[in-house]
Design brief:
Residues 5-52 form the Helix-turn-helix domain. The chain has 63 residues and is an alpha+beta fold. The protein is built from 3 helices and 3 strands. The protein has helices at residues 8-15, 19-28, 46-62, and strands at 5-6, 35-38, 41-45. Helix 1 (8-15) packs across helix 2 (19-28).
């Protein structure tokens, strides 16, 4: 199966934040590390983001 890759804009839409926030989260290590597909082409693997989201749910529920 081919991996699906998400851009910063895709992640911003998915989490309801700005692209600048995605880049800040990346810089602070708050989201999974991206992969670099070429010069000026940074993407996140959808599978990594889904795993990250699963980890967020218990944190929110524990309050």
């Amino acid at each position: 199966m081919l991996a699906k890759y998400l851009s910063a804009a895709d992640l911003a839409y998915r989490f309801g934040v700005s692209k600048a926030t995605i880049w800040r989260w990346k810089r602070e290590g708050q989201i999974p590390s991206p992969v670099y597909l070429g010069a000026r082409c940074t993407r996140w693997r959808e599978e990594d983001i889904q795993d990250y989201e699963k980890g967020l749910i218990p944190d929110v529920m524990l309050g």
